Amino acid sequence: MDINDRVQELIKNYGQNDQRTDAWHSKRGEMLTASEIYKALSDATPAQKHEIILGKLTPRVRTEGPGPRALVWGTRFEPIAKDIYCSISDFPMKIVDTTCIPHPTVAFLGASPDGIILTEGVRHGRLVEFKCPISRTFSDDSEVPNAYYHQMQLQMECTQLDTCEYIEFQFRTPSYSEWVDSKAQYKGFYAVTDDEIQVKYRELTDTRDPSTWRREVLETSDDWNLVYWTLEKYRMKVVEHEKDWLEKNIQSITEVWNSVLEHRSAGTLPAHPKEKTILTL
């Protein structure tokens, strides 16, 4: 299938941003997904396999509040990262969000890419995967973390697209005075409610100062707090589809999924593996 036809088909069928909604979580509960697939591979530890199997057998616990700090950090900065990434493209570029995309032949596999690039030239139709680590550092020469490499491979398997751009952004949240003095090329702020549930962003092209933006955009500004950010660095790596990735990993992946089905049928949960503790002096 022509790349343009494939991209249009994906957008038509899966071009919606429902990630982290109840429907999205429900769909992911019935399959092994890209972000967790490293736990189902042959080199995964017994504890990792136990974790992914248990996660498919127990109901998702809905908690009050925003969630784990690292997850919240990545979720809040991803829209900013996407906007910056589009703005630095040589050609006009748009990133289309997607929902969970099932694998075309393996029903229990699925993936939710961060988006599909629409632009001119060779980058058209590439997937994108954004990472905004809260503490992990990186350089241009850093290897793509193993879990993220396998995540992108399954994303390309599910979408039948051959290339993914892996992008890492290092953001910092300075004080207001540090933010004002910062010479960073990209800096801005967003607003978050006192309960940390709702977030509103100032667009990159918006030149209003914080006080004016707060007054004109936020209905009840007393309920919101401004978070100032600067972009310290970023990098991009092109990851190509490893054509025999699924063939090399399908046996281990299938064994893990079969364990899910067996426990589900029997109404049981897997026992936690006993792993030796290795003491490093």
UniProtKB/TrEMBL annotation:
Record domain YqaJ viral recombinase: where: 24-160
Gene3D superfamilies referenced in this protein's UniProt entry, alphabetically: 3.90.320.10
CDD domains (alphabetical): PDDEXK_lambda_exonuclease-like
Coiled coil spans: none
InterPro entries attached to this UniProt entry: NF-kappa-B_Signaling_Reg, PDDEXK-like_dom_sf, Restrct_endonuc-II-like, YqaJ_viral_recombinase
Matching Pfam families: YqaJ
Name used for this protein in its record: YqaJ viral recombinase domain-containing protein
